[in-house]
Each structure stands twice: as structure tokens, then as C-alpha cells.
Task: structure prediction
Amino acid sequence: VSSDLNAFINFTNNSTRLSTDQDNNEKTKTKESVWNLANNMSRWGTYYYNQNISSGVSICLSDKHLVGASMNYSKETDHYSGTSIEKMYRNENIYEKLISNTLCRQLYDRWGCNIYYNGNWNDKWLLSVNTDYVKHTADYHQTNYENGSIIGKHSVSNLSKSTHHIYATKADKSPVFACV
Result:
């Protein structure tokens, strides 16, 4: 009886840089007024990085038994920043002017692994077992430094952190197979 061993490893590294200028206008009509929001988002930049590595191995122990495992890791980083100038008009008269400088950072990490077994125990049935685990973490931080004609100088921060763990196992009986 010979054993067949198969293995792989893969790595990718991606990055993107974007720059944009954007103008937005919104109008809202009420019974008393016409409101217009003009937003100029000049000099916005985004820097995105993504790295992935995955690997795995399987071994055919005999023509009736196969075992294997794989693992992967992914890391994403996204930074963006820019300045926006918002002007709110009421019936064509300026109501408020708000200048905002935004800084944002988003980080994501994901680990995953799979372990499996396929075994042909007799001429009638195959036992297949798969077990998976995934861990995902996210970290988000955004700060706006604002200066408005109504409120004055102030900052607004949004922070969010989360971690998720997922476990799963499945076992099946199915028709007979042979390793190839």
C-alpha cells in the first residue's frame, strides 16, 4: 500500500491607492422653505492593502482512507482621509457652513482552518467528516475634525471592535469511493 501526499501553499499581496474629488448637491422642499446642501469633497485619498496566505496538505493513506487539512489567513487594511466643505442653504441664504477633515482606519484579520477525513470502512459505506473553524476580527476607527458656523470647532469619533468565532463539524455516510 502506497501513500500519496499532496500539499500547496499560496500567498497574495494586493494594494490599491485611489484619489477622488467629488461634488454633491441635495435639495429638500418643505412648505416653508427650500433647503439645499452643497458638499465639496476634494482631495480624498484611499489606501487599501490585502495579504492572504493559504496552505494545505492531504494524504491518501490507502485506497480507502484520505485525511487532510488546510489553513488560511487574510489581513485587510484600509485607510482613507479627506476634507469636505458643506454649505447648507435655506431659501438661497446660507444657513450653515461646515468644514470637516476625516481620518479613517479599518483593519480586518481572518483565520480559517479545515480538517477532513474520508474513510471507506467496508464495501457498503463511506464515512466523511469535516471540521471548520473561522476567527474574524474587525477594528474600525474614524475621526472627523469639524468646524461649523453654528457649532464651532469639535471632533466626532466612531470606534468599533469585534471578534467572531465560528465552529462547524459535519459527518456523513455516503456511497463507496476510492482515492485517485
Q: What stands out?
A: The first strand starts at residue 4 and ends at 29. The mean pLDDT is 91. The beta strands are 4-29, 34-62, 65-90, 93-120, 126-148, 152-174.
